[in-house]
Amino acid sequence: MRSQDPALGIRGTDTPPDAPLVLVAKVKGAMVLGAVDADARALGLVPGLTLADARARIPDLIVAEMDAGADRHWLQRLARHCAGWTPLVTTVPPDGITLDIAGADHLFGGEAGLLTEAEETFAGLGMAVRLACAATAEAAQALARHAPLPIAPLSSADEREAIRALPVAVLGLEDEAEIALRRAGLKTIGDVAVRPAAAIAARFGMAAVTALRRLTGEEQAPIAPLVEPEPLHFERRFAEPVGHQAAVAGCFLDLLRMAAEALEARGLGGRRFVLTLFRSDGARHRLAIETGLPTRDPAPVMRLFDERIAALADPLDPGFGYDRITLFLPVTEPLAAAQPQLDGATQDSEALAELIDRLSTRLGPENLCRLAPRDSHIPEQAQLALPAIDARAPIRWPTPPPGQPPQRPLFLFDPPQPVEVIAEVPDGPPHRFRWRRKLHEVRLFEGPERIAAEWWRRKGGEAPGQGGLTRDYYRIEDARGRRYWLFRHGLYEEKADPRWYIHGLFA
Amino acid sequence: MTAPFAELVAATNYSFLRGASHPAEMVGRAHALGLGGLGIADRNTVAGVVRAHMAWRGIGGAESGLRLAVGARLVFAADAETGETPSDVVAYPATRHGWGRLTRLLTLGNLRAVKGACILHPADLIAHAEDLLLIVCGPDRGLIAQLVAARPGAVWLAAMMPRGGSDARDLAERQALAAAMGVPLLATNDVLYARAEARPLHDVITCIREGTTMAEAGRRLLANAERHLKAPPEMARLFRACPAAIAATGDLLSRIAFTLDDLRYEYPHETVPAGWTPQGWLEHLVHTEARRRFPDGLPDRWQSTIADELGLIRTKQYAPYFLTVHDIVRHARSLDPPILCQGRGSAANSVVCYLLGITSVDPVKHTLLFSRFLSEERDEPPDIDVDFEHERREEIMQYIYDRFGRERAGIAATVIHYRPRSTLREVGKALGLSEDVTARLSGTIWGSHGREVAETRVAEAGFDLANPAIARVKALVDQLLDCPRHLSQHVGGFVLTEGRLDEMVPIHNAAMPDRTFIEWDKDDIDALGLMKVDVLALGMLTCIRKSFDLLRGLGLGDHALQNVPAEDPGVYDMLCRGDSIGTFQVESRAQINMLPRMKPRKLYDLVIQVAIVRPGPIQGGMVHPYLRRRNGEEKVVYPRPAAPHDPDELCGVLGKTLGVPLFQEQAMKLAIVAAGFTPAEADGLRRAMATFRNRGTIEHYRTLMVDGMTARGYEPDFAARCFEQIRGFGEYGFPESHAQAFGWLAYVSSWLKCRHPAVFTCALLNSQPMGFYAPAQLVRDARDHGVEVRPPDVNASAGDSTIEHRADGALALRLGLGRIEGFRDGWAEAIVAARRAGAFASVEDLARRADLPTAALRKLADADALGTLAANRREAAWAVRRMPAGQLPLFAGTGAAELGAEPDARLPAMPLGEEVVADYQTTRLSLKAHPMQFLRATLAGEGVMSCAEINAARDGRAVRTAGVVLTRQRPGKGNAVFITIEDETGVVNALLWARDFETQRRAVMAARLMQIEGTIQRSAEDVVHLMAVRVIDRSALLERLGDGVEADPPPIRAGHPRNVRILPRSRDFH
Lengths: 507, 1070
What we know:
Number of domains of chain A: 4
Helix content of chain B: 40-55%
Helix content of chain A: 25-40%
Largest sheet of chain B: 7 strands, mixed
Radius of gyration of chain B: 33 Å
Low-confidence stretches of chain A: 1-14
Radius of gyration of chain A: 34 Å
Strand order of the largest sheet of chain A: 12-13-14-15-16-17
Largest sheet of chain A: 6 strands, antiparallel, barrel
Oligomer: heterodimer
Strand content of chain B: 5-15%
Number of strands of chain B: 22
Number of strands of chain A: 17
Low-confidence stretches of chain B: 446-450, 1044-1064
Strand content of chain A: 25-35%
Structural class of chain B: alpha/beta
Order of helices and strands of chain A: EEHHEHEEHHHHHHEHEEHEHEEEEEEEE
Mean pLDDT of chain B: 85
Number of helices of chain A: 12
């Protein structure tokens, strides 16, 4: 399976489009090819080869890490896609899907029609598939994986023949047993099938015999189809259009209660709620809200919808009334049932989360931010403004040791403002400085705090003298007791005439 | 005037991944800045102090005005109860006694921990605090109080001005604390590197240490570049609020009386019996042995040589050293069975060593001189390495520990430096490059010993050095390549002392059980004049000993290393043909090609043969001149200087090697005689050469040597070549003294191969893994020499290979059951034991009497080792697979067959091709046929010639051939790839130029069966090379062998490599 999605970002812009791509995984400390694309296969690279060997042969190989989780997820999605042909679909990880098409294929023009349709569907997704039909799931999988292409639908006699010609590898035995079968001269399923089952079982175990019987159709294994959970979709229809606001609101609440019940049963909480109001004249209103924490409590969600409605540019106009109202929950997250505290108090974090939800809903999520610390020495880069609704983890700010004053001001100028300074050379504190045309006499100071530039962000910054200017910060108190944060941009070794800036104000 | 500031808290890059500068760089910078002193203190180690000491001696020692203090920074483990970590303490020994306390303390911490760590608590320091001067690095009130109580008047509190914002406040707090505790404050910059420019390097090693990237590291990096060495005026300015802290540095320094020169070495006393002096005992041993060997009186030459050597040993007081080596060798010989060993090295070429039994080469007969050792001006201990059988060396090592005690014997360390490949990967990772890019970059380095990351190689991988990201990686990697990475144990260099070793140097646990090693490496030990005995492992000695044992058992003579018939012309005839597979040192492809050109006829020729195919002579361009002179194509002339120098000054130096310098000693002598090096310069050159990592230093000697030689009238070209050769020796030094020891072993192994090929091959197989060739090639070579080789068989084989007598009286080689992959020694032993009662009659009989598990039976059946018990291999395997895993107790006593009858499975017969494949899969060789035989008809139809035909073809002919790949190598500068392929008729050596390689890389690297097209190149000595033009991967043909063993193309599922691999892996470069 190979994604054509350019967003995958495996191929850089500078690599040729036909460079072979391989996915690698770590096996016993060595990087080993786990999957290869058609180009790589054509060049003789096969899964199981170490990456070092592969690179020795083909240096301009594109390598990406295997992502077993994503593969599994993708396979599940494809399998769900197949549910249009038959409800009995199951995945055979890492790369197979089995469909039970008994009684379903005639809807698509028989086996041949279904195969053609499946092939076209997957080709439309940019995927190459190997397809085969057979009497049992195991036989179909074996044919799809090992029989020479193309595999047209076979008569049962031909199918038996085709299966008998398959290599013994399809039995899925351990390597050691498989080699033993081949060493005994039994190289195809046919070779094994004609030997007495007792002789095979005595040497290779019952599992081998069972696998053989399933391949040859003497035994059927039940298939466990994928169960698709019902979407969280709730609906109220009205015989008479409802227009009264209280009735509509009551209906919202009913829907939210229904949703809460369904969510509780699945141990989930909603993070996105979409309410759709169908007006009797055919107009439609969609209202969507998001919460920072998963929830299934109707009351706060209801409040958020109220906020949402209040914030609408166009007020909600019921016109002749609504004949249908639906609630859909596209995003959910696991939420364990919580025991309410005995005194009935809500937890602070919940209260804050509710406030953030409400403000974000009212003002738009991008307009409500909270600062998160970022690990950097550079003051203006030491924090990050994130949408509050996304920044859910408790945030911990670096604090000075007990008894020490804060090292950073609460307010930072962006950008720092230039000031004129009279100071001692090379790294003495300012005696006085002029800021916004006002002269400030320095009464107390502390510093310097020396912060070097991040050389690794500068081109050639690793070379001596190219790392950027160092800043010397001073905490200053002027004669009137006001406190400032000033810095000299550059040491005298770095720059003949370094400039001074004011970067922040202390409380 | 007070003494100028001394920096007393300086870490070097021996504080692994924390310090960023070499000890020598620190000393140099401190001197340049005019510091009054420098204290080297690395984290829980003194591994770097000897280098600092050497650098300090280099700038003139105490006369330089810089004082050097050596100690360690003690980093404590967290307190088990409070969970708090005490402050670091820097400890400097004031006296020799204090040094011993410090090393004992570190040893204690080291031995508590697994390899690489050191676990210390303040209580340990207090117990070892005598004569230590202590600097507490942090404001740790409790620790200071404890230390002051233990060492009143010898504790300081460090004060730093790191530009952290609150420096002045912190300093005031420390002043107050110091006053309260009654300890002086001591100014320091807590140095991590010599110059501020090292900040990027320090940031990168911080990322490597923390396992993060520059972008992610954040405040784990230092905020600024202040922690470098600062000049006294700058420090005085920073500490103007507290000048006493500056003055305290001088006070502390003035109390240190200890330097590393105070470590006086004393030899262990055990080797000398009571009542004897070492010299007297040595002379007694030598004379006794001389009388034994020459009962009719010593010949004059012997007499005078012995007198000379003993005289020199007496003046240099080296007798205990010789006695120590003698003691170890004597122990090895006294064991039952004895361990074969042989000494080599400069001092080993002495009559004394010969008479003490350390070497077996008669130095008088072969006119060897221990000339290097004789140069009296070099005040260095003599050098003797002793090789032991590789399988039994551990016994010797444990003997040394037992005899001298673990606190008096330790293995030297090897400082592992950053290697280009891993450095690239780690630096690339720290800089945030993807694994993919760093892997491709590191793939540009072929060997792991390259020095700098070659620019051409970087470009080859498709990277542009103008790209700033790549340039940055390269710049930082080049800096880091010089740095030590960690300590490891030396392969076998033991340091033995009379006093406690752990009072000389800290001892560590090695990764291997029962091994301990010291913190100093070979150079440190040399520099301090400690004695080291190299106890090395050599596979060929195991093989020779096993050969001697077999010969003795077969009644073919009682041989020892000393009494192998010397100068047997048949042996030299064999070697002149290039017939040397399996022998010692002269078996590589390059050696096999060289043998017919060298045409060795005597032992000394072999000595040269061993030495000539080495980087030194090759890079110096000395090989061809020597060969031409040897073959009489060129006159033997000696390079001459201009007047007034003695025109024949080099005759003495180059006389033995026809005027061409070949050995390391000659190159060194050239530097002294022809370039006028002083002994000190020559010694420096030797050092620079021995540790090629001292980059830069060797370039200094290049100018010195070339200018020196041209000034005396030598050809500039000759001078340049001599220097190139010295540089080549740097990569793999090969002195004559070693070549002589190896030459003799080469002769002994060749004699065994020539006179007793079956026995020799048997011993080789039983000594695996060793040598250059896989068992398949060794067996094939034996069969080519007419030895019958018999397959493994439960009714004939032991675990090891054995020798059997043929009906015609000749010897046959029976392969052992150990050749079967995965077959355990215990199973083989059980089979041999059970067979004493009579041959096995059936598989059930075997299983019962030898009590074998089914896994063992299956392996035997698969490998066709049940040949005499079953109809054929396939039937045997089929039958064995049916046997239940464990014997049922009911049937155990009766011995009755417990399985019922079963209808015949009518298995198809196994074709020969499949037999061969199964043989290779189970034993990695086949006696039945060569895989290429089955493809011969197909290939012949395509005009592909056999290897034998290629080797007989005329020069210049365009040909094509095919064979199984044995080796792929890209030696030296990498401008050619050497490929060896094999078929049923022989072996072909092909050469592919690098430019052709790059276009056919995939075929060259992937092929197991390779078709090569090219032209024949036949040298005057009839050495044939195939100059390859085109390489085709024909591995698909191999799949046919197994008769469908490999379904084509391989299915999507990843298979076991065994399924894919029909033939054993070739030996490749990457």
